[in-house]
Design goal:
162 residues; Homing Intron 3 (I-Ppo) Encoded Endonuclease, Chain A; GCC-box Binding Domain; elongated
Length: 162
């Protein structure tokens, strides 16, 4: 693992923009440029001394002097937004709760699916690896309201509804 001192020798972190700017390089043309590359999920990764680091984890280390123990969650679910105000420590459960609506969702509402065989909508939520059925409803909006209540109860500030 890189030391905080080494990190600050090579980069400057701007908490307002979330960017790491090179302040040292063996090649002068890199100084002043934004460090790292985006991976397939949109997260910025920065190679330092041959090791690859996630920019969000480096930001936490830069600001606090401690490596995050588990996950670093992006409050707005935008993996490219590494602003300090957008980052928070999270458990795997909390990080999972703060997920966007899946692209294969056919109802347009998180936690809602169409009930097969009848003209109703089912609400459900996954908690600690187990799916909890929240009921069947006449409209997807009513089912989504049930999901929102459960998400607030189980996930608190990490609950995401869209």
């Amino acid at each position: 693992m890189i030391s905080r001192r080494r990190l600050k020798e090579i980069f400057d972190y701007n908490p307002e923009t979330g960017e790491f700017i090179r302040i040292f390089s063996r090649r002068r043309d890199y100084i002043g440029t934004v460090a790292g590359q985006r991976n397939q999920k949109g997260k910025r990764q920065i190679r330092i001394d041959g090791k690859l680091y996630s920019a969000n984890r480096l930001a936490v280390f830069w600001m606090t002097g401690r490596w995050p123990k588990k996950f670093v969650d992006h409050k707005d679910v935008d993996n490219s937004n590494d602003r300090w105000s957008n980052l928070r420590h999270a458990t795997p459960k909390q990080n999972g709760a703060n997920q966007k609506l899946r692209s294969n969702n056919t109802t347009g509402f998180k936690g809602v699916s169409r009930t097969t065989g009848c003209d109703r909508f089912s609400a459900g939520i996954r908690v600690d690896g187990h799916r909890k059925h929240l009921g069947c409803f006449r409209t997807p909006e009513l089912a989504h309201e049930a999901y929102k209540r459960a998400a607030k109860k189980f996930f608190g500030k990490f609950a995401r509804f869209e």
